[in-house]
Amino acid sequence: MDYKKVKRFFDIILSLTLIVILSPLFIIIPLTLQLTNDTKKIGYFKQKRTGINGKEFYIYKFRSVIVKNNIDHVTKYGSFLRKFGIDELPQLINILKGDMSFIGPRPRPISYYEYYTDEQKEKFSVLPGILNPVISNDKENASILEKIDLEVEYAKKCNLKYDLLLIKDILINLPSIVSNRNISSHGNIKNLNNDLDILKENYMKWIDKKQYNKTNNNFNDKKEELINVKVNDISKANLFISDEQLEYYETMLNNYTEPELYQGPKLVKKINSNNKTVY
Known about the structure:
- The protein is mostly helical.
- It is 48% helix and 11% strand.
- It has a two-stranded antiparallel ribbon. Strands 3-4 form a two-stranded antiparallel sheet.
- The protein is globular, with a radius of gyration of 28 Å.
């Protein structure tokens, strides 16, 4: 049986049940927040995030932060809500809608998406979740790259056993998770920009390496083609190269700056019976 379909079934049943049971909180908390914060903004907050297969959706939260002069300010009760993750209760609606699951990689801002490498984008093969491997490993204060590595690992291993182990780790580490959560920096604009800068730098390194490997592979393919020419094989006579071409490939080899990526044989000149130079 497809585990993802079973998981989705339980997501629907459990989220709907919790929404009904906790419905008074969905009225009391936002009203309290709206009456006590400085801007009198509505107590709910929504923001675009990237979900499964790169699809964008609005994530819902209780408003625990207001922004003044591009700086986050935690509201009067925001610290308490964020410390215990209560601000994320509205994400039960996201789960019911099918945007999220109870367990999965953390949905991150849409500005991050274009700077994920191909391997990092594997995290989008499953629904994002409220409970996630970053929390279970108590790594909320780790670097963005380390967090994404954990999320990719989850996406690759997603199954019932792995989800149960994740829940077990969260329950065991819950006191530590709550006490170590840095409320002042949790999700603020400065940290988001820092994470984005790290992703951009990592992405550019990945692009450079990808382009280099492509160039190196093309070069090695041509080199192997020439090396494999048999001196006396007339059928491959069309691969014999001119003196100018020979000089060109010799120059490429002599100027090759990263020999550690190439472990093949060296170029060797050979003279066939017709006094033509081949490899």
